[in-house]
Design brief:
This protein is mostly helical. It is 68% helix and 0% strand.
Length: 75
């Protein structure tokens, strides 16, 4: 599976578990309101800084997000 697609799938799960809409997560991360949707649809790839910001808001460690992406990507 493509890395950006895997990241989008991985991102969606903790966002929904946190009860946040894409727009709410983006606002809490101080990102453009459409950016989370673009990430989840694999139309954008996050920077390492963005991964850390999103992880902090979702209260998960950045390496946990990356580990899940690795699993889906097949690494």
């Amino acid at each position: 599976m493509e890395i950006s697609k895997a990241f989008g799938i991985v991102l969606r799960k903790p966002r929904k578990l946190a009860g946040l809409s894409q727009e709410e997560l983006a606002l809490q991360c101080d990102l453009d309101r459409t950016y989370i949707g673009l990430l989840e649809r694999a139309q954008r790839q996050p920077s390492i800084t963005t991964i850390f910001i999103i992880s902090e808001v979702l209260k998960i460690k950045p390496h946990e997000l990356i580990k899940e992406v690795e699993k889906l990507h097949g690494i």
